[in-house]
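re: that complex we talked abt at group meeting.

here r the seqs, copy pasted straight from the sheet so there may be weird spacing, ignore it
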Amino acid sequence: MVLRPHPPSKDTCYPPRVDDFVDRGGRLHAEDVPLSRIADAVGTPTYVYSRATLVGHFRRLREAFAELKPHVGYAVKANGNLAILKLLADEGARFDVVSRGEIFRVLRAGVDGSRIDFEGPGKRRDEIEYALDRKVRILNVESEAELDLIDEVAAAKRLTADVGLRVNPDVDPHTHVYISTGKAETKFGLDIERTRRLAGTIAARKHVRLKGLHVHIGSQITEPGPYVEMVTRLLALGRELRRAHASLVSINIGGGFGIHYRGNEAPEMREFAAALVPLLRDSGFEIHMEPGRLLVGNAGVLLTRITYVKRSGEKRFVICDAAMNDLIRPSLYGAFHRIEPVEAREGPGAQGGGSGGKADIVGPVCESGDFLAKDRDLPLVEANDLLCVRSAGAYGFAMSSNYNARPRAAEVLVDGARFAVVRARETHEDLVRGETADPEWIA
Ligand code: LLP
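got the structure back, here u go
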């Protein structure tokens, strides 16, 4: 195969790319490692993460909001790999978790409970017990009944639990309906009136103390406007509640900051900061935020190998070894991920020398909803070529499954010229772990 540099492709805009997955001499690299080398060593499908991109995003965010001395809690749900958690912990991150399992992961990465915020609308009793035993910083409450339960569990443990109230500010984040959480009609948080009322009952409870207010209005938000609206409402409420609750010291503005998937659709961190810092600067509150996607989304790609190329009617199908079970975002949200050959081909039909035309890039799973891209401009590719699915670091592996008895992908971390497997590819034994063909009946 003749290699040549990647020219700009039509449906994506180059640069601006906020990651370290770059073309060198016609070969896509993760930092200084050719992706093809990783595929040869580890196989495919494989998630590949760049340490430099991850750490770079974390530092840029911190810098943008530096004036507020923000407490940045990484939303573990985006990507809970222990190596990712450890890298962020070493940078000084805190962690936002939504389950007992996520608390377990963060602790396993060597982080202390005091750096964890526990959220989510359905915390079970055992999860509340586990969180209190591990001394998490705060439990963010989303309903009256949950506050009652935390009060009861804390009483049994003879301690006072620090709680936050998650406010639903009724703000439209202008994003996909499945990841929009700040409108009144979603299941998340407490409306402002109920927040007030619930705060009023806290003084009378012996085992909870109001420490914070929390908001998260949605994900992949690409404009500062909804944040400004939300922060304005949150601050007004915070100032009001602080009069009765001296313990109320922190507000958490959530995550949701959008990233580039197609090209240049997300504002710079500086733009969000320029809109929000003036509002929050003199608030007197500790400012917390909890981004997931922003930190890790463009720090990861999914590497997959083409199994077959076929035509059906007018259509070209590129069938690769990654599927909806590996990356469900295209099937679930109609999400767009840029996809490029890892090594460009020369010749008629290749990029630059004419296009291979449109293609559906699909996996082997037996559903028509199993696709990574539809009607996508893709240069000429052949079986055994590698494809790089970009912006897959957030909600990629984390949402993967074993559907069709497919072992989950390996995960690799790159650091400069070296790489390491940070999660081994699952084996067939992993697929049946805990199962039995001979039930031990319990009468
Ligand atoms: N805080 C809370 C309370 C959340 O529910 C979430 C995400 C975050 C923070 C982090 O949001 P981020 O900064 O990553 O936007 N699976 C979807 C995204 C679901 C987001 C769920 N909550 C996707 O693949 O687009």
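couple things i noticed - The chain has twelve helices and 20 strands. Residues 1-16, 349-354 have pLDDT under 50 and may be disordered.
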